[in-house]
Design brief:
mainly beta, 7 strands, about 50% strand
């Protein structure tokens, strides 16, 4: 990760990009191979963790993911799926 940057979501290409704040023309794809329909992105500078939300229609699912840029670990922080019995499922 760069020192000064912005994170942006491209819903059409279903990717998250990092933009160098000093050189706005520098765009870098984040190595988040699991990003699927990302909607929003945030960054915790202290913990160096990227958070993003995803949405899928079938099955209807909203999930929040966290990727630690130091350890390269990916975690699902929240997962809400409409399953057959109408109950929501949450995974941490």
């Amino acid at each position: 990760m760069l020192d000064e940057f912005l994170l942006v979501v491209d819903e059409y290409l279903e990717n998250i990009y990092q933009i160098d704040a000093a050189k706005s023309e520098t765009l870098q794809l984040l190595p988040l191979f699991t990003a699927n329909h990302p909607l929003a992105v945030a960054y915790d500078r202290k913990e160096q963790v990227v958070f993003w939300t995803e949405y899928t229609r079938y099955p209807s699912t909203v999930s929040i993911h966290a990727y630690n840029t130091i350890t390269k670990k990916l975690n699902i922080v929240y997962n809400d799926t409409d399953n057959d019995n109408g109950k929501d499922t949450t995974v941490s």
